[in-house]
Amino acid sequence: MEGINYMRTTTAVAAIGTVAVLVFALLPVISGVLASKFALDDMQTGFAATAYFAAYAVITSTSGLWIRRFNWRKVLKLGFAAMIIGLVSCVFAESFTAAQISLALVGVGAGLLFPVSFTIASEMRNTDRVFAIKLTAEQLVPAAMLFLLTSSFLLVDVYANLFLIILLGVIVGSFSIPLVPDNMRRQEDEARSHGSQRGNFRWGLFALVGLLINFAGFAGVWAFLERIANSSSLDPSFTERWIAIGLVTSGVGPLCVAFVGERLDRRVAIAAASTVTVLCLLLLNGETTEFKYAAALFVLPLAFYFSISYMLAIVAEVDYNGKVSSLMSFVLAVGAISGPPLFGYLKSIDGPALSAMSVLLLVGAGLMIAVHTSIQSSRKINVV
After folding, report:
1. What is the DSSP letter of 58?
2. Angle, CA of 338, 99 and 229, to the nearest 5°
3. Where are the chain's structural domains?
4. Does the pLDDT value for residue 362 go beyond 90?
5. ∠ CA(11), CA(313), CA(140), 5° rounding?
6. Long-range contacts: 143-150, Cβ < 8 Å, 24+?
């Protein structure tokens, strides 16, 4: 993407991406407040945000049809408007059904924002660094919101507080729209001219599958962090504080990638970070003490988001004419839809929920490593 202001565009990518992931980033708290307000069981809690992610998935699945046809700024305005209306409705929802319908509208808006953010980031230079900066903002801003949520000066109930704070974040994020480039035809031609150099569609699909499986494993655990603490009778304020700290450390992981960049082999980074992520799940198994919970919340998000920064860069590297990158937000949505219900079901029958998530994390990471290895091998053959 020549001819654009790198800093302005990176800022816009980070701001739009942050708004689009607010619901997922705050999912442990959202699941918790929905469960408390509407008296949900484990199975229902696993489906607490399904309406949001279902709407999100439907919109993002069609992104290949509209991402190049419409002016990005107009798409973003529509997306921000849908999120604002949906969040206002969430604040006043008096039933779980009403909350689900409102969250679905929020999901429609976020589904319009995220593909734009991913597509721009994928076409910029230094994709490892751009994705790292984007992910850092997507974690640190929700962390700040969660700290604000626990502040004593907020007088409304916790449920309303949560959605009002998210609403404030969306409104602030909407000011980034003018920073987004809108020369669609030039960008499309650019993507086509470089398409053959950036990989092929088959490897792109394998990378997307790996990303989906890996993210489903993390999403399942992330959605139930508050419930895991609750089942071990940990203090709610302690739990919220450490979830907020987990959001901070999840921003530290990508920040490390931003500094390290491509100096570290992506395969080594993904393998090491994924192993650490799975080891952290052992701390949450069985009766969870405050020490084990705090240790897991500090390390697990840091390790996972360190690895996923490289995974997103791999998908962008094997992109084919921009079509694969626009689907990244869709597969992340599918992962977010499938992980929590699976975890909730296994937890409700006292099954191996954490072990199942560990398998998903490792299988997804393995696929991403295999894709990167194959692409590197292909390049060496072509050079020879």
Report:
1. H
2. 60
3. 6-376
4. yes
5. 45
6. 143/244, 143/245, 143/246, 143/247, 143/248, 143/250, 143/251, 145/22, 145/26, 145/169, 146/26, 146/29, 146/240, 146/243, 146/244, 146/247, 147/244, 149/29, 149/240, 150/237, 150/240, 150/241, 150/244
Q: Please report the pLDDT score of residue 108 as a whole number.
A: 94
Q: Regarding the domain with residue range 6-376, which homologous superfamily does it belong to in the CATH classification?
A: MFS general substrate transporter like domains (1.20.1250.20)
Q: Quick: pLDDT tens for 265-310.
A: 889 999 999 999 999 998 888 788 899 999 999 999 999 999 998 8
Per-residue tokens: 309: 């920064």
Distance CA 343, CA 104 (A): 21
Q: What is the DSSP string of 356-375?
A: HHHHHHHHHHHHHHHHHHHH
Contact status, residue 308 vs residue 257, Cβ threshold 8 Å: no
pLDDT in tens, 157-204: 778 888 888 999 999 999 999 988 865 444 444 444 444 444 467 788
> Is the separation of the CB atoms in 269 and 258 below 8 Å?
no
Q: Give dist(CA 202, CA 376) in Å, integer.
A: 15
- pTM for the full predicted model: 0.75
Take residue 93 and report the two structure tokens written for it: 């929802």
